[in-house]
Specification:
- The protein is about 30% helix and about 25% strand.
- The protein has about 90 residues and is an alpha+beta fold.
- The chain has a single domain, classed as Beta-grasp domain (Ubiquitin-like (UB roll), Roll).
- Strand 3 and strand 4 form a beta hairpin.
């Protein structure tokens, strides 16, 4: 089963503090569906927030069709906004 790692904020809000969850899924879309089923609202938030997904350490900005292996580690990370640097 793939291991899903959530931020502390997501885990507090949806999983009762559980930051690592194992899911049986073949793609990120399937991972999100499994999370939504187990923790209502979590999958929807992941989809709507445009989170960055790391699969085995590689970042994806449009990940929903990316494959997930049985031994993969999947991390959902908040997207960081751009802007002008304060350093001049």
């Amino acid at each position: 089963m793939a291991r899903v790692v959530l931020t502390t904020e997501l885990s507090r809000r949806f999983t009762g503090g559980k930051t690592e969850i194992e899911v049986d899924a073949g793609s990120i879309r399937h991972v999100v569906r499994e999370l939504e089923e187990a923790y209502p609202g979590l999958g929807k938030l992941i989809e709507e927030a445009g989170m960055i997904v790391a699969i085995d350490g590689e970042l994806y900005h449009d990940p929903f069709l990316e494959p997930v292996g049985a031994d993969s580690e999947v991390c959902f990370l908040p997207a960081l906004g751009g802007g002008r640097s304060a350093v001049r």
